[in-house]
């Protein structure tokens, strides 16, 4: 069934239908264009949202980026940004493959439709013109017939009239004959025109217009097919990005599952662990006694044996009170390499060895020191703290970590310079063997510069190694002090060893409100780590020393770079690991100096 056969007389209907089809195509194009604008606006808003909530600081400078919660949130933002990119891709595909192509196709359809209907209208005009000619010849034939009949009647009446002359009768007969001849010619012309019109009409209705209608039908069907394909492109553009969007959603789910609360707690410890020793007990200050009385057995600070209580040279109130605003820990004096001297006194009070009355000394100290309520805010340091190259302005644990980072960075730079030197040497050898490739002398400045950089980096590595060793010693000292002041550990010590056993004994004296017994004075509570190794245990893994370490403190053990060691105890979060050497001997070494493999 086709339009030329079934709709031969529905020219106006076909004209309205084809126009409606083109209007529908234009409406769909307009819809897709607005849909594209919506997708673009949606993607833009998503990108602005992601940009608003992304961290402003670089990852390496942002401590919050180390938490799994922050990392998961950043990953979710990145997935949302990728999702926005897929929405932009959908908008681009719809704009190019639907809007532009269908707009171009709609223009072609409009031109084709216009051409077909112009052809049909010309055929109609030609048929109408033939019909008018037929009507004119018909009216002329009718008029000539009436004139011929009237002339014949006039000639017959004159012929019967006895009063009419012969000339009038002849004239009337000639006129009647002429009219009859004209009527005959009009008849022949009308018959020919009628035959021609019938032929044109048959061609119009059975051939010409059906062909035009069939062309319009083909055009409309092609337009409908193309519009259906455009409908499919709308869904196809979405289906193309569904796998990637699914990956984005899967990435968000993975980011949600990656949140590790325990690990975040450990990260917080690693970031903000100061390494300071816990403050000791607050001493009793007796204001009921006269300040000018002579020292006696009942004076505060004088033990029962009559000897004044002496404080060790390595202890100070500033070190015991890291939370005090007025007595913040100051960096110890620097060694020739730039590091702090462990034996330096930070900001301690005058030694009681000066021979003055202990009560007078206690009075001076109480006047110079504010009430010792711990203030956690003071741990952050003042705004005017000046950063030093050895990071001595930081707490001991943070100083150790920063020095370790700087040491690793210098080692990487040193390795890079060494590799560059080797490459330049090989290039120089090639130039010497093949002079046409280049001048070996041109590489000398670069080789010299590389050697200079290597020497400089080696000095910096040595400097940072020295600082790191001193920082490790300071951390060990603080931990030993803490253990000395708190003589009731639940398990054998799992932290780094102290610098000396005497500090722990002296701290124990300072932190107790009552004088210790003679047995407590003679036997230190925490002296050496050798006591922890009385019962041999089996290794739990193996490890290799990455760097050389000189175990100068009590409880530590020396090791050389590349030495294989047995792992006896894992790091408990304090940065120290217990190992055993093959030659014998067991002790603690820095965890960062090892490459550990557990059994």
TrEMBL record:
What segments bear the compositional bias annotation Low complexity? Answer: 336-346
Residue segments, region Disordered: 281-358, 479-542
Q: Where are stretches of biased composition, namely Basic residues?
A: 314-329
Listed Polar residues bias regions: 289-302
Boundaries of every REM-1 domain copy: 393-470
Give any single GO term for biological process. endocytosis
Q: Name one GO molecular function term.
A: lipid binding
Does the UniProt entry include the keyword Transit peptide?
Answer: no
Annotated GO CC locations:
cell cortex; cytoskeleton; lysosome; plasma membrane
**Residues annotated as domain F-BAR:** 1-264
Where in the cell does this protein reside?
Cell membrane; Cytoplasm, Cell cortex; Cytoplasm, Cytoskeleton; Lysosome
Give one Pfam family: FCH
Q: Per UniProt, which keywords does this protein have?
A: Cell membrane, Coiled coil, Cytoplasm, Cytoskeleton, Endocytosis, Lipid-binding, Lysosome, Membrane, Phosphoprotein, SH3 domain
Q: Where is the SH3 domain?
A: 538-599
- Cross-referenced SUPFAM superfamilies: BAR/IMD domain-like (SSF103657), SH3-domain (SSF50044)
Instruction: State the coiled-coil residue ranges.
Output: 124-175, 397-474
Q: Which InterPro entries match?
A: AH/BAR_dom_sf (IPR027267), F_BAR_dom (IPR031160), FCH_dom (IPR001060), HR1_CIP4_FNBP1L (IPR057871), HR1_rho-bd (IPR011072), HR1_TOCA (IPR057870), SH3-like_dom_sf (IPR036028), SH3_domain (IPR001452)
Tell me the protein family, please.
Belongs to the FNBP1 family.
Q: What protein name is recorded for this chain?
A: Cdc42-interacting protein 4
Q: Record the organism.
A: Sciurus carolinensis
